[in-house]
């Protein structure tokens, strides 16, 4: 495996993904991980990420320099390369000209990181983003590539075990990025491309069996990808020792609960208990306008119902959760923001229920979860569903959630999804949905004045929901959705399109 030490770069996660795409397992750890912990993890190679600081700042993040004595190859990227230089006795200074964006790289070394790449006058497009630069190399180092403003754009130690690049091989704009990373992990570190979803399943099925023994596991199914894949791999390991619980909170979309249950019962062998708690949830939400109060009531209500069902099953030792890798990484944050978004539908469970957790997806990114799901035999329509929030339509109705307003939103939402699918846009966007606004506006229908509800459309592009931009849907598609909603949904006379990005807006409206 390859360890990535995070110095706070925006692209640290990308490094991990790029390496995993080469079928080599990689893990991200904070820059100050102890040497003992590194030894314990037995890496074949270590990558030092970029970061926003200058190595000579007094509070700059430093990893233990003992790292260079472990006999493990190290690749420094940007800040990571500068840190390597500084810790091994070279010099880094503020650059006169900062280098941001595309740069031309000339390579003068044909082995190590650059094996197989053109050298000499040939220019490779790379992506730079740095204000400091290496001014003097430590002993035993030599330069292997230059760019206009970086006389030491890439460096290596005599036996190639320590290498550094000033550019970012993990970003798509660095056209030789994958070559460089491949040369590091295969050529220099000697890894083999053996990390596949198939091997992941084998290893995890084994681990789950060992952990659970004859115990019982419960899992909250939502119909979303993460919980479905979690249930599927655990079921592969321990069969009917797993019981899944599906709670219908009355805030699902049209026919959604029915189709989720039909799917699990007909297409999988999972043992699913379903509870229709619509009355209970609508009661909890009556009169509630505040979004946070809504979220809390829905979250706590979920825990209450889930717990009641779990008790009916009897002695249960484990709770399965679909936690993903981005929620687990202890990302280094220099801006003080918490990198983790806490979600509310399952987040509160472990404390309450005091069950041991099983989180088989902890090491995976979302796209890997999808790949795993397909490998486990789940059909594409279950794998490529857009995310849907735990609190459901409850947080897409601004103001009070009532049966009547749920019905209006459901009708509008079906139209959005139908038209998105029909136009081939459903899978192109991260999410697309309707929101019911708490205002009425004036319109005219036939000869009469109307005073009715407004639906807002929201469609966003995103990689991981941490940031998002509004989707540039074709005008014709927006037009079709709008006129169908206004014509077909009673009580709506106006449709707006939300063109805010996240940040500063969020994807959901509440
Ligand atoms: P926001 O609105 O924070 O949403 O930009 C980011 C992503 O998370 C989803 N979301 C939730 N998912 N429980 C969930 O399981 C929740 O409470 C919740 N709130 C938001 C949202 O749909 C988007 O994909």
UniProtKB/TrEMBL annotation:
PROSITE patterns attached to this UniProt entry: GATASE_TYPE_1, GMPS_ATP_PPASE
GO CC terms in record: cytosol
Active-site feature positions: 78 (nucleophile), 168, 170
Every GMPS ATP-PPase domain range: 195-385
Catalytic activity field: XMP + L-glutamine + ATP + H2O = GMP + L-glutamate + AMP + diphosphate + 2 H(+)
Tagged with keyword Protein biosynthesis: no
Alphabetical keyword list: ATP-binding, Glutamine amidotransferase, GMP biosynthesis, Ligase, Nucleotide-binding, Purine biosynthesis
Transmembrane segments: none
EC annotation from Swiss-Prot or TrEMBL: 6.3.5.2
Enzyme type, top EC level: ligase
Residues making up the signal peptide according to the UniProt record: none
Keyword Zinc part of the UniProt annotation: no
Binding site for ATP: 222-228
Residue runs in coiled coils: none
Pathway it works in: Purine metabolism; GMP biosynthesis; GMP from XMP (L-Gln route): step 1/1
MF annotations from Gene Ontology: ATP binding; GMP synthase activity
Primary role: Catalyzes the synthesis of GMP from XMP.
Alphabetized PANTHER family for the sequence: GMP SYNTHASE [GLUTAMINE-HYDROLYZING] (PTHR11922:SF2), GMP SYNTHASE-RELATED (PTHR11922)
Subunit-structure text: Homodimer.
Protein name (Swiss-Prot/TrEMBL): GMP synthase [glutamine-hydrolyzing]
């Amino acid at each position: 495996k390859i360890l990535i030490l995070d110095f706070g770069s925006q692209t640290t996660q990308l490094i991990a993904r790029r390496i995993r795409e080469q079928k080599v397992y990689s893990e991200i750890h904070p820059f100050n991980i102890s040497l003992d912990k590194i030894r314990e993890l037995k890496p074949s190679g270590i990558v030092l990420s970029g970061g926003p600081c200058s190595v000579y700042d007094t509070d700059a993040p430093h990893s233990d320099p003992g790292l260079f004595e472990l006999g493990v190859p190290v690749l420094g990227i940007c800040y990571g390369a500068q840190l390597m230089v500084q810790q091994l006795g070279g010099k880094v200074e503020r650059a006169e000209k900062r280098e941001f964006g595309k740069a031309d790289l000339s390579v003068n070394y044909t082995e190590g990181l650059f094996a197989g790449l053109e050298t000499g006058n040939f220019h490779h497009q790379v992506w730079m983003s740095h204000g400091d630069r290496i001014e003097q190399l430590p002993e035993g180092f030599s330069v292997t590539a230059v760019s206009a403003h970086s006389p030491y754009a890439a460096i290596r130690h005599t036996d190639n075990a320590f290498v550094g690049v000033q550019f970012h091989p993990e970003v798509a704009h660095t056209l030789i990025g994958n070559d460089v990373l491949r040369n590091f992990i295969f050529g220099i570190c000697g890894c083999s491309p053996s990390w596949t979803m198939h091997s992941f399943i084998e290893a995890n099925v084994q681990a789950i069996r060992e952990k659970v023994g004859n115990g019982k596991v419960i899992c909250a199914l939502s119909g979303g990808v993460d919980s479905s894949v979690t249930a599927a791999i655990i079921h592969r390991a321990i069969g009917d020792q797993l019981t899944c619980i599906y709670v219908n909170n009355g805030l699902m979309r049209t026919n959604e609960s029915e189709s989720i249950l039909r799917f699990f019962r007909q297409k999988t062998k999972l043992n699913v208990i379903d509870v229709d708690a619509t009355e209970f949830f609508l009661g909890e939400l009556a009169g509630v306008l505040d979004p946070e109060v809504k979220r809390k009531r829905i979250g706590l209500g979920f825990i209450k119902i889930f717990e009641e069902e779990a008790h009916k099953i009897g002695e249960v030792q484990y709770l399965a959760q679909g936690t993903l890798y981005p929620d687990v990484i202890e990302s280094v944050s220099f801006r003080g923001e918490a990198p983790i978004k806490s979600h509310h539908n399952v987040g509160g469970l472990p404390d309450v229920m005091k069950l041991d957790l099983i989180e088989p997806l902890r090491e995976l990114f979302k796209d890997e979860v999808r790949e795993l799901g397909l490998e486990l035999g789940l059909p594409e329509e279950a794998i490529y569903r857009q995310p849907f929030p735990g609190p459901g339509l409850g947080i897409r109705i601004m103001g009070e959630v009532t049966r009547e307003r749920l019905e209006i939103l459901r009708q509008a939402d079906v139209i959005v999804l139908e038209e998105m699918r029909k136009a081939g846009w459903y899978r192109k966007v991260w999410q697309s949905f309707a929101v019911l606004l708490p205002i009425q506006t004036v319109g005219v229908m036939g000869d009469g004045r109307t005073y009715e509800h407004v639906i807002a459309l929201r469609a966003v592009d995103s990689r991981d929901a941490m940031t998002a931009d509004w989707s540039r849907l074709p005008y014709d598609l927006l037009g079709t959705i709008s006129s169908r909603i206004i014509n077909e949904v009673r009580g709506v006379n106006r449709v707006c399109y939300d063109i805010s990005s996240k940040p500063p807006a969020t994807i959901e409206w509440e």
